[in-house]
Amino acid sequence: MFLPPYLLKGTQAPFKKERGKSRISDQRRMLRSRRASQEIPRHVAIIMDGNGRWAQRHGLPRSEGHRRGMKRVREVIRAASDLKIAYLTLYAFSSENWKRPKEEVAFLMRTCEDMLSQEIAVLLKDGVRLRHLGRIDELPETLRRILGNAMDVTRGNQRLNLQLAFNYGGRQEVVDAVRRIAADVKAGRLDEKEIDERTVSGALYTADIPDPDLLVRTSGEMRISNFLLWQVCYAEIYVTKTCWPDFSKAELERAIRAFQDRQRRFGGLHG
Ligand code: FPP
Fold first, then answer.
1. Where are the alpha helices (DSSP H) in the chain?
2. Ramachandran region, residue 134 (left: φ > 0; alpha: ψ -120 to 50; beta: rest)
3. Mutate-to-test residue for ligand 1 from 63, 77, 168, 244, highest number of ligand atoms within 8 A of CB
4. Whose CA is nearest to atom 12 of ligand 1?
5. Whose CA is nearest to atom 24 of ligand 1?
6. Distance 224 CA to ligand 1 centre (A)
């Protein structure tokens, strides 16, 4: 019987065939028990990509890809909460996305407004705390107000920390951090000789948020695309060919299983 190589990985003994149980699921169970860890990543960050390609493949306008993508955002937030992921960061609009046609930019702004307005009650009920990463002052006034309100009312929630990177750029974040640190030095609040990695981490938009353990990118591109440049230093990277509008809870679980198969050494040696 032909088995795909990923199912054979790490298998040594031949498997007995049992009636009613598939050989593949036995092998999957074996693989699971040999995982490097059972640990659920504390922080999962996702580059949601491929809405446009998904729409094109289905003969639909790009806006339909974004609309379908928004449904997946809702689903993945719920899945992350079920899986007890503590921090989920979603890259929804980069500082480079302003270069897109103005109709598409306006559509994405409206989509974000609609999603937040519609979801706020659910976020509150499900214990989700929303934070925004990026330059909020460059966003349209209505979106700023909706985002600000969503962050205020969910501040006390603790079940899932959801970061929405919207008008976010990793380099811009570093520039903003350098400006904050420089202002502190100039004002005499900070001695430049005391500046270390913690000072820089603490000046980023993600000051109170642990670094991502797992970085997921959909639609197959092998790029970081200006996302959390400082923070992904030791993140495990998982790329799937699935476009974001098809990214399901099962896909998220697959990414987590791949994470559990990795040996994280943080620059050291095996323990
Ligand atoms: C990437 O697909 C996706 C985006 C630029 C936007 C992400 C937006 C959503 C998932 C829906 C809205 C959600 C919120 C929270 C506003 P792409 O357009 O770059 O796809 P392509 O690379 O195939 O063209």
1. 5-8, 23-33, 51-57, 62-82, 102-125, 141-153, 170-186, 197-203, 249-260
2. left
3. 244
4. 70
5. 52
6. 15
pLDDT at 264: 84
Domain coordinates in residue numbering, the chain: 40-169+211-259
| 3 pLDDT above the threshold of 80 | no
CATH topology of domain 40-169+211-259: Undecaprenyl pyrophosphate synthetase (3.40.1180)
Catalytic residue set:
49, 97
Pocket of ligand 1 (CB under 6 A): 48-53, 66, 69-70, 73, 92, 97, 108, 111-112, 115, 244
- pLDDT tens digit sequence for 216-251: 999 999 999 999 999 999 999 999 999 999 999 999
Which of helix, strand or coil describes residue 21?
A: coil
Alpha helices (runs of H) in 134-271, residue ranges in sequence order: 141-153, 170-186, 197-203, 249-260
**Number of the ligand 1 atom closest to the C-alpha atom of 69:** 10
Q: Give residue 271's pLDDT.
A: 54
